[in-house]
Structure formats: structure tokens, C-alpha cells
Amino acid sequence: MTMTVQSKSGAIQVTGEVIGQRKAGDYHVLTLTAAGIPELAKPGHFVALSVGGPNSSMLLRRAFSIYSVQSRGVYGGTLEIVFAAHGKGTEWLAKLHRHDQVDIVGPLGRPFALPKEPVPCVLVAGGYGSAPMFSLADALRARGCRVDVVLGASTEAKLFGVLDAKRIAASLTLTTDDGSVGEKGRVTDALPAVLKRTDADVVYACGPMAMLKSVAAVAAEHGAYSQCAVEEAMACGIGVCMTCVLPVIGDDGVTRMLRSCVDGPVFRGDRVRWDEVGTIPEGTLGAPASGGH
Known about the structure:
Blueprint: E1 4-6, E2 12-24, E3 27-33, H1 37-40, E4 46-49, E5 62-70, E6 78-83, H2 88-94, E7 101-108, E8 121-126, H3 133-142, E9 147-153, H4 162-168, E10 171-176, E11 183-184, H5 187-198, E12 202-206, H6 209-221, E13 225-229, E14 245-249, E15 255-259, E16 266-268
Parallel strand pairs: 8-9, 8-12, 9-10, 10-11, 12-13
Antiparallel strand pairs: 1-2, 2-3, 2-7, 3-6, 4-5, 4-7, 5-6, 13-16, 14-15
């Protein structure tokens, strides 16, 4: 039986069913029924899944970017997520079989903002951070934007979506730390040349925090506006537990501790105080005068 519960945020809670699971390099792609979520989902949204089954001691949900959605078809609404099996929760997901059930809440968070005018855009992703970028690219192209893509990872097996990127990108640049494919180095080594060549106005990025910090800096140097989808740990996904806060400068110049799950996961790259993520910087609204950790 499929149950649907509507939340005040507009997200819904559904009991999804596994339709299929496949490997893609070092990652798993899990397809689930999720009636009602595809119609609400926008690029950059995420879902929070219960893991371990109904009798599990793993109480916290796991958050995953939405890779793709299908609102119609033989199964009705479906969605796909991408993950690496590196902990008890994701290892449990990796062992799911067809018809197994998973409790899903989504779509959650604030999605990417799209330009009002057709402008050149560069999409930058590390590892499976590329998952939300392909629906974003489709949305940008529908608005007449040129889309160039930079994908990076430590090694070829950790790149995700290369074929998808070739389909949607005006140009695709690949980087690997070990040089196994594409340019040897990191995405930020290749990004300046791409920005110069495309004269991009907007940079969208998703990946590890260190990568996002560097991408935001490179974008600022080239006068481009950046939007970064952060990969902070999100235990609840609905803004209650406060485990995913990070310092962000507001329009008024005041730093506030914002929750990645409801105020993000997408933030302006030039507003996040990247060097102080994990701390409460001095002067932050509501913080002790001396700051703290």
C-alpha cells in the first residue's frame, strides 16, 4: 500500500517501491516509485529516505539529491537517486531488491534559481555531485541558455553522468586527480579557461565543500554569479535538528547560521563563509560575542 502525507513545506511523505537498481562506476543508481514527488521536484531539490527497514536502530534519514524524475509511465511517478555505499545506511540501500519498500520525504530544500534571461552558464560537479546537474541543464536550455559542463573526480570510476553531460552540454571538460581520464587535476584547474572561453554569467556547482569553496572563488574572480549546492550532513532534512548549519552573509551584511536543508542546499557562493564552516564566526547574529564552535 502506498501512503502519502503532505507537510506544511509542500513536501510529501510516501512509501516508495524499488523498481530497479544498477551500478554506474563506483556508484549505485536506485529507481523508486514516489507518487506525487516528480510533479513537485525542481533541479536542486533532494529527498530524505529512511534506511534499515521498520525495525532498524538507524533512526536518522539519509538525504540524496534527485538525479531524475518521471511523472508518468507504467509505474506512475518515479525518481532516481545516486549514492556511494560507504556506511551502514547506504550499504542497506545498495542491497535493496525490486519491490522492496522505502519511506521517502520530498522534495526538500531550495532548488537552483534559473536566470530570467538567456545567459551562458557553466555547471561544475565533483563525483556524484553531478546528479542534480542534468535536470538543471535541461531547464537552462529550455530558457535558451548555453550550458557548458565541467565534471571532476579522483579517478574515472568516480565520475558520474559523462554520457548525460555529453548529451546536454555545448562543451564537456573532464578532470581526474590521477589523470585516468580527461585533464589531470581538479575542476578548479580547468574552470578558469572554460569561464574565459564561454564568458559565462552564472556558475552552478555541486560537490564536496572544499571544491565549492574553490569554485566560488574562481567564479568571483571572473565576475560570474555562483550558486553552490552544499553537501552538509542533513540528519532530519526539515530544519529541526540544526546539524547542517553553516555561516552565510545576508543581503544586510549580517552573518546568520542557516540550515542547509531548508535555507539551502543551494546558496550563493559569494555569501557562504567557507573558511569558517563548522564554526560560529564572531559577529554572527545570535552568537556569543567571542564566537565559538
